[in-house]
Amino acid sequence: MPSVTTPNGPAQLPLQHQIGRRGEASLSQGDLDGLCGLYAAINGLRLLLAPVRQLKRHESKRLFHTGVTLLIEHDLLPSAVVEGFGDKLWRALVQRLVEEASVIADRTIAVHQPLAKLVRPTRSATFAAIEVALAAGQPVLADLSGRHEHFTVISGYSPYSLFLYDSGRLCWLPRASCSIGRARSRRHHINPRSLTILSIQA
Predict the structure, then answer these.
(1) What mean pLDDT is reported for the chain?
(2) CA 183 to CA 122: how far, in whole Å?
(3) What's the chain's Rg over C-alpha atoms?
(4) What is the pTM of this model?
(5) 107 torsion bin: left (phi>0), alpha (psi -120 to 50), beta (else)
């Protein structure tokens, strides 16, 4: 058993010791901040460009810096970090990152919100918009509420699930657990008017 010298003299140390209670999970990066909207936009662009121009780590950091700079310019960095993004700010952020990614990748990237002007997008219209975009290789950014107050990227679908490319390591959402629009009766709520499709223009 090892020993050390303390102010009270020599002391024997146990061979193994760990502080903290068992089951006391540590916080992870992102647990306390509201920057998922920034990460969702960057992840969506990475996913969109991957088939033609995979973004390097320093290029992704350049996009992150661009997003943070936008928040600083509008004096919104503290509130965004703590509270997250409102719809207007998030749209501006996505547009700024799309412009920067277009320069980095030398591609023309477009942003489209197919349901933004509908008063009450239906469940079927929402899922159809997601499926049409994904079938064309276009990632879908989405604003979730309910169990998760979170921006994410929808990257695939099946008859039963939506698959995610997510900064918080969420993998999928069962369709049966998703409510749409004003109906919030289910575990996950998708804001249909927030659906943002990224595409590369020919």
Answers:
(1) 88
(2) 10
(3) 22
(4) 0.87
(5) beta
